[in-house]
Fold this protein.
Amino acid sequence: MLKNFIKMKNNKLDIIIFGATGFTGQYVVKEAARLAKETEFNFGVAGRRKEALESTVKACAPDIENVPIIIADIKDEESLKKMVEKAKVLVNCCGPYIHYGEPVIKACIAAKIHYVDVTGEALFIEEMQLKYNEAAQNAGIYIVNACGFDSIPSDLGMVFTQQKFGGEVNSTEVYFSTSNLKNCNKPVANFTSLESLIYGFNQKEKLRDIRKKIFSKKLPELKPKLKFKGWLPHKCAFTNEWSIAFPGADRSIIYRSQRYFFEKYNQRPIQAEVYIGFSSLFYIFMLSFMIILYFLMKFSYGRSLILKYPKLFTYGFISHEEPTEKTLNELKLSFTFLARGWTEKLSEPSDVHSDPPNKEMVTKVTGVNPYAITSVAVMLCALIILKESDKMPEGGGIFTTAAAFSKTSLIDELNKKCLKFEVVSSIEK
């Protein structure tokens, strides 16, 4: 697909990477440079400091000639306007998005420029949908959040599972796990990732209010109901790992996608719960520690304490020190999906099956290095908007990755470059 990419003929850059000097931004610049060697497109980098941008281009895109550098600052609305007017698609790597994302989205809507980002902040994502979905539709542009490790594997993994199931899925349990953690004595995520998690975490009441306004149409009552296994550690029978509920945005992203498929295509929505698992009994202690973290994040003093001493409160997995590429490349990541449903599909999503589920399928999405996955995924999303907009929802708006790209070649491209989507087993009862 991408080798046949054809540039539109105008003076705009195909893609501008904003926040290019940050930890994630540098990964994205490297991937843009790599893809530019096999695909015909051009890109620029943007941020506050010219010297830092020049250094990033030199280090991350040494073989690409004349990468344009654009000076833009979140606090300078005019600079954002000038930046987005130079792009066809803006890739926003500047987080935490709850603090820095909205001005960029507003600028893109005003200039009618497509936008993708790598946020994993549920509050930011849903607040932007509430505020700007209609404006994005009127502008005819695509705004797609969470185009990185949050939440491409889980969101598109659900789409892949649904496509392969061959019947009607009632529920899916998603288990995220990371191998080789016990061999890591250095950070495995950058500090901004922790900031994003904490700032968006303690906003349940605000999220509920937003969801009441966004999701006015009631979903059908689905049976049998998927049971939530809670915040206490439990042993998962099919992964053989100790697991707890995953506090990231994946579940909310999945539900937004499933709601979209219901409203747009009259497709029965899938119930989902997302957990994080650990293979060793050693990590039961860490799971308990995560529960303590959960309660600390409810209070401003607790949040300040975690951000001041991240290494202590994350068992060394996050600190003010950036993770090394060697450490990240040793991380093997997987999302395992246990889907239950029926071999036959009823005519309407509200119809109730008379028999209990008679089919189970296990699928898996695997990869290495969350930042490498993020950089490949967000660049592919940007390029597919340019190349395959005819396969995306008509008219524009704010979308999840599954809603935006389920009918495009994105899963195939990810399969080639950074993620493996596979069916592990399928059993009919």
About this structure: The chain has a mean pLDDT of 90. The two ends are 39 Å apart (CA to CA). Residues 81 and 107 are 6 Å apart (CA to CA). The longest helix spans residues 122-139.
